[in-house]
Write a structure and sequence with these properties.
This protein has about 70 residues and is α+β, with helices and mostly antiparallel strands. It contains 4 helices and 3 strands, in the order βααββαα. Strands 1-2-3 form a 3-stranded mixed β-sheet. It is elongated.
Length: about 70
């Protein structure tokens, strides 16, 4: 669903509730500004969205070890 920023400001509760069931794209002057999404996201979809963002040579183990120090 796509809504204008003006629509969001006029009835935020409506769109926050709708975001629980579908993504809401917020636009201003026809350009997408933000995406409102519910907290129950599909973990597989989130992981797929990271492909191409993370470096190919990333070493998850070393990152985890650094984090746990």
């Amino acid at each position: 669903m796509q809504i204008s920023l003006r629509d969001l400001v006029s009835d935020p509760a409506k769109y926050v509730l709708l975001a629980g069931t579908q993504d809401i794209y917020i636009t201003q002057e026809g350009k997408k500004l933000a995406k409102l999404t519910g907290i129950k996201s599909d973990k597989a979809e989130i992981a797929r969205s990271l492909f191409g963002i993370l470096p190919q040579d990333i070493d998850i183990t070393s990152i985890k070890d650094d984090y746990l120090r």
